[in-house]
Structures are given as structure tokens and as C-alpha cells.
Specification:
By secondary structure, the protein is of the alpha/beta class. The protein folds into two domains: 186 residues, Rossmann fold (3-Layer(aba) Sandwich), CATH 3.40.50; 161 residues, Rossmann fold, CATH 3.40.50.2000. Helices cover 40% and strands 17% of the residues. The protein has 13 helices and 13 strands. The protein has a seven-stranded parallel beta sheet, with helices on both faces. A six-stranded parallel beta sheet has the order 10-9-8-11-12-13, sandwiched between helices. Strand 12, helix 11 and strand 13 form a beta-alpha-beta unit. Helix 7 runs parallel beside helix 8 and helix 10 crosses helix 13. It is globular and about 65 Å long.
Length: 371
């Protein structure tokens, strides 16, 4: 079979792609990957040897207005449509709702029941036509995965039996579970660390302001630095914050190094989509056994509270840092470690069930093609 994985950004920013790629028998299938090189910088693709790449090159900053992205989206649609039309693929993985929406007409015409839809972003769901197209994509899919159970509310109820949960789990991380426990570096400060794409300027300014005024803590940011990160770095200079640090872009493997210097994960986000999402750092927390901070009333806050693996809080609270200090100093290490183990096992059970769905979907499509 000829299989295409369609993404909406650079490969290194789509770790969730591996959930699907790792469950394709690459020895018996021809695998193609379509991705968007948004910063026009090359990336290391050596571990994807044997795959055929379709690179869409077009500069586009992520943290800018939706309207300013329209031209880039149109160019991406043209590129992706050409690949789909000319490629004559047997099965497709659609990563991200926007990816699917931009080529929905091609999917409906040529690939009905021949794709898996990966839904992980509700940003545009307030736009009725967008929601209608997403519903159509879901109904015509062989199977749909959501990266957060909170996203199920946006998908058609009549498709519920064909919607499954995926997890942004980097399996390589499991080999480094004891990184913090065995190799952790102690400090007289409580080190709070964020890693990933740095955004949400206002809420992070509030966090920085509160941490800067409390010498019990340090705040570290790891991640590529675009508009928001640059503004935050300037804010740190403006308020002369000596305990806030920016470390720049990193590779997934470098997480194993800086997790040794992390006491609490900053997993606080504040917009309509991220309040419902499940971020990569949630999984890092339970794998590396590091407590995490999540935004009050978010879905992740609900999860960390339920499983005893983190703390729900709001940076706007006057006693924000006092609450964090009180939480952290009262953690019972053995109980916390056990809670992480229990939650990780739950996640791994769902992960394994998802693998079976992927393999069955491909096999079913292969059987239909032969009949």
C-alpha cells in the first residue's frame, strides 16, 4: 500500500506523528510524509529513512493573527491538493483539523473511508462553516483520534463509536524514567520550567512578574523564540528579573538533560483551545515523575487533580507563589511516584488500544482494495 502522513508544520514539531508512523509496517508499505517547513530551516530527517518526503516551504510565524495566515494556508492547500491528486495514495493520516479542512473536498471525492483523522485543535470551532467541514471529515474517516477527551464535544455524536483517544507519548522517554530520580541536580531554589513553543504573552508576563518577586523560585523557558518569547525576554530585562532564564530551542532528546534541573513543570496555558487540550508536558510529568502546574478550570487541571500528579492554580491570584510553595513542600515523594505510575499505566493501555485501531484500519482498507 502507498500511505501518506499529512502534517501542518515541521516534522520535529509533530512528535504525535510517531504514534501513527510507528504502527505502519514500513517494510510492506510505501510511506510518504507531507510537512510544512515554516521557518525555512533544514531539519534532521535521518531517523525517517525509507520515507518519501513532500516538503512545503513557506515562511510563516505561528503566533500571529489568523487573518495574516490566509495566504500561506491557500498556498499549502494548493501544494497538498497536488500531492493528493497526483499521488493516488491507498491510505492517509490527516494530522490536525486544519490540514483536513484545507483539502476536505479532495478527501470526500477520492479518499472516503481511506484515512484516519487526528483532531487536536479546537481554535476555529467557533466558525460554523469550519465546524461543519470537520463533521464531514469525521463522518467520512475510517477512524478519528482526539488528543484530548475534552475535544469529543466538537465532533458528531453519531460518530462517537468510531472516535478514539491518542496520547502525545514519546516512547523513547520511557527509557529515561529515572532521569530525574537518579540524576537530578539539587538546588536551594524551586526551579519551575516550561518547554515547548512559547506563547500566551500576557499570562506568562503575570507568571514572570510573580516569580521575579519571590527568591524562593527560578523560572526557566526552553523553546524556539518567536514574537512572544522575544517580548517576554524584553519584559524580563525591563523588570530586572534575575531569576528568570531563557535557554532557546532544543531537540526532544535534550529534555532528558534539563529535566534533571527541573522541580516543577510549567504547564499553564490560557485560551479556549489549550484549556481543553492535553499537552506534551502532561506526559513528560508522569514519565519523569515531576509535578506540574496547570491552569485553574482547564482539562489538564482536572486530570492532574484527579490523579494526584500536579497542582491547579491561577497566576492572577495574589498568593500564586505561596500556593505553589505550599503545594511543593507538602508533596509525599513515594505517594506522588505511585500516582505517576498509575496514571502512566492508564495512558499506556489507551495507547496500546489505539495502536490496534490503526493497524485494523490499514488492514481493512487493504482488504477492501483487493476485493
Amino acid at each position: 500500500m502507498k500511505i501518506l502522513i499529512m502534517g501542518f508544520t515541521k516534522i520535529k514539531y509533530m512528535p504525535y506523528m510517531n504514534f501513527y508512523l510507528n504502527n505502519i509496517d514500513k517494510a510492506n508499505h510505501e510511506v510518504h510524509i507531507l510537512y510544512w517547513n515554516r521557518d525555512l530551516q533544514s531539519e534532521d530527517l535521518h531517523k525517517y529513512r525509507g520515507c518519501t518526503f513532500h516538503e512545503f516551504k513557506c515562511y510563516q510565524e505561528d503566533d500571529v493573527s489568523k487573518l495574516s495566515k490566509v495566504t500561506s494556508f491557500a498556498k499549502y492547500r494548493k501544494f497538498a491538493k497536488d500531492v493528493l491528486t497526483n499521488g493516488k495514495f491507498d491510505f492517509i493520516f490527516i494530522l490536525h483539523s486544519l490540514t483536513g479542512v484545507l483539502v476536505a473536498d479532495v478527501l470526500k471525492k477520492h479518499y472516503r473511508d481511506k484515512y484516519i483523522f487526528d483532531y487536536r485543535d479546537s481554535t476555529y470551532e467557533g466558525f460554523a462553516p469550519f465546524k461543519k467541514v470537520v463533521a464531514s471529515i469525521t463522518r467520512n474517516a475510517n477512524a478519528t483520534f482526539v488528543s484530548s477527551d475534552a475535544f469529543r464535544r466538537f465532533l458528531p455524536e453519531d460518530c462517537s463509536e468510531n472516535i478514539y483517544t491518542s496520547h502525545n507519548l514519546l516512547l523513547d522517554s520511557l527509557e529515561h524514567r529515572d532521569e530525574k530520580t537518579l540524576l537530578g541536580i539539587s538546588s536551594d531554589k524551586i526551579r519551575i520550567a516550561f518547554w515547548g513553543f512559547i506563547r500566551h504573552e500576557e499570562i506568562n508576563k503575570e507568571i514572570i512578574r510573580k516569580i521575579a518577586g519571590d527568591n524562593r523560585f527560578e523560572l526557566h523557558y526552553y523553546g524556539r523564540e518567536q514574537q512572544v518569547a522575544l517580548a517576554l525576554k524584553q519584559y524580563v530585562k525591563d523588570i530586572d528579573a534575575e531569576n528568570v532564564f531563557f535557554h532557546g530551542e532544543y531537540t526532544p532528546e535534550q529534555r532528558y538533560d534539563f529535566v534533571r534541573n527541573t522541580d516543577i513543570i510549567h504547564n499553564i496555558y490560557c485560551d479556549g483551545n489549550t484549556m481543553l487540550a492535553m499537552g506534551n508536558k502532561y506526559y513528560d510529568g508522569i514519565i519523569f515523575k515531576v509535578p506540574q502546574l496547570c491552569m485553574t478550570n482547564s482539562f489538564m487541571a482536572k486530570m492532574v487533580t484527579r490523579y494526584g500528579i500536579g497542582f491547579e492554580c491561577s497566576p492572577t491570584d495574589k498568593d500564586f507563589t505561596d500556593k505553589i510553595y505550599d503545594y511543593y513542600t507538602k508533596i509525599a515523594p513515594e505517594e506522588f511516584s505511585l500516582n505517576c505510575d498509575i496514571e502512566l499505566q492508564r495512558v499506556l493501555r489507551e495507547y496500546e488500544a489505539g495502536k490496534e485501531i490503526i493497524q485494523k484500519s490499514i488492514s481493512r482498507c487493504e482488504t477492501n482494495d483487493k476485493s
